[in-house]
Each structure stands twice: as C-alpha cells, then as structure tokens.
Known about the structure:
Blueprint: H1 5-21, E1 23-25, H2 32-40, H3 42-54, E2 57-62, E3 65-70, H4 81-88, H5 95-112, E4 126-127, H6 128-152, H7 159-163, H8 167-175, H9 190-203, E5 207-210, E6 215-218, H10 220-230, H11 233-242
Antiparallel strand pairs: 1-3, 2-3, 4-6, 5-6
Helix pairs in contact: 1-2, 1-3, 2-3, 4-5, 5-6, 5-8, 6-8, 6-9
Amino acid sequence: xAYEAEMITxxxxxxxxxxxxxxLSDLDAGVNDLYRAYVEHEEVMNLVKNQAEIADCKIExxxxxxxxxxxxxxxxxxxxxxxxxxxxCKPNATDRDYYLAQFVILTLLAEFYDGQGSTSRSREFLxxxxxxxxxxxxxxxxxxxxxxxxxxGTNLYTEMYETVLDYKSMSEAxxxxxxxxxxxxSKYTKEGYVSIICNFLDRQGLIIFIPEDEMxxxxxxxxxxxxxxxxxxENYARIxxxxxxxxx
Length: 248
C-alpha cells in the first residue's frame, strides 16, 4: 500500500516524539498537529504502529493520550529483570528481593484501584508508612495461607502460587530489612526500600512521590493504564488472590 509523503513524515515525527517522551497527549504544548494526525488519519496510525512493532513495542491510546509501551522482553526501551534488580534492590540481590519489590508495587496498585465504580481509582493518596504496614500485613496473610495449604497436602495451589509466589522467601527478605531508622532512605531499611521503589515509579511517571510528606499519589498515566488496560473483574480477582485476599 502506497502512503503519501506527508503521512509518512507525520508518522515518523510521532514515533520519535513517543520515543523521547513515552506519551503524546492532546494537551501537550506545540504538538497538537501530531496528535490530530494520529487520531484523524488511519494511515498515520497504522504507520506509527508498524514502526512500534519493528521496535518491539505497542502503541495504545487511552482516553486522549497515546502511549508507547515496550514489550516485556524489550531490553532497549524497557527494563530487564537485571535492570529492575539494580534499580529496586540492594546490591547482590536475589530473586526473592526482586519478587518482593514486585509485591510492593502490586500492593500499591491494589490499594489505589479497586476495579469498581465509574473510575477504577478508589483513593486520592497513600502514606508511605501505611504502605509499609499493608505490605507487612499481606505478607503475613499470604505466608499463613501458604503454610495452611502445605499442611493440607491436597495440592490445591493455583498456577500463580506454584510458579511465582513464595511468601516465605519474600517475608524473610522484608523482615531482614531494618525498621528503626526513621527517615532513612537506605535500601537496608523498610522505609528506605519502599521509598526507593516509589522513587522509581515516580521517575517512570506512574506516581507522584513527595518524600518530605511521605505522600504517594497516582498520575493520569497510571490511572489510564489501570482503567483501560489492566483492570477487569478477572484481573482484579487475580490480583487480590495474589495478595492473599478474597473479593466478592
């Protein structure tokens, strides 16, 4: 299929903008022509998506924002497991430290989004100390459930429990962190560990983390991704099962 030169040029400008900024909104200053070209011309949209596919990415439009989303195994535009270990965990981190970091992020998401109502977000903010306590409580609940299932001996584990979650190891990793240094930002304290994860999410534009107030808020980017991409009844139930809770 032949494309007009103008359509090709627009698609290249849009893809480059997405590479630089990660998203293109109708509110972004000075690039409204790029946004309109994408939403008003199917040819431009298809060209941008083709370029993204070659770069192992996907293009998603949620509301009035277009996002560039690297595939999970994209080591150039996304994060590998090794990258995330370096960003989120202490030096020489093991898999249990890595999965604990993922559990903290999952807990944060579950606290902000309940998957119900006209909007999926259920609260405006979350305090750092509250997040720490919730992580601790859910690890204990998950460990108790894990021990109960082991004692039961009936092999009733779900696929997720069998292949991903190890509450014992995650609990050991979390409890090995100190909890006495108020205000510490060290990866070796609970507060510092959770703060480092929040700072990482802040740098990715997913949350707003205000360290001096120990305040966590979500961004429109995260709200859109959760509401349009991730949350439905099945996914929400799966998240709550992961956190050791049941949800009607």
